Amino acid sequence: MTTLSETARTTSPAQTIEPRAPHRPTSRLRPQADGMAVASFILGLLGTLVLNVVLGPCALVLGGLSLARGTTRRGRALLGIALGIADLLLLAFLTTTDGTVSWHIGG
């Protein structure tokens, strides 16, 4: 059984200092991140039609999380974020023009 002091004596300082790789998510998180990117895109797309007050922020959060976890579907995550922003802009437009928070057809 070797002690810490014996290990420190046998290794040189160049051997103990290892360059660290940038933080990468494990392979287990990558499929979850890909699913979040797709969900972000779908929720952002649905939010332009219904429930933009709820689905827009959900699309923003899921898109941001998927990008942070290193998704391979980066384009879908960015589209989800863009659609989430469009949902909130649409909500602001509808609220200022009609005084409502949803689409309606007719007068």
How would you characterize this protein structure?
The structure is a single chain. The radius of gyration is 24 Å and the shape is elongated. By secondary structure, the protein is an all-alpha fold. 23% of the residues are buried. The chain is 66% helix and 0% strand. The mean pLDDT is 80.
Stretches with pLDDT under 50, minimum 5 residues: none
- Number of helices, counting only DSSP H or I runs of 4 residues or more: 5
The quaternary organization reads as single chain
- Percent helix among the residues? 55-70%
Rg of Cα set: 24 Å
Please identify the structural class as seen in this structure: mainly alpha
The succession of helices and strands, N to C, reads HHHHH
Largest β-sheet summary: none
Large-scale geometry:
elongated
End-to-end separation in angstroms reads 85 Å
Q: How many strands in all?
A: 0
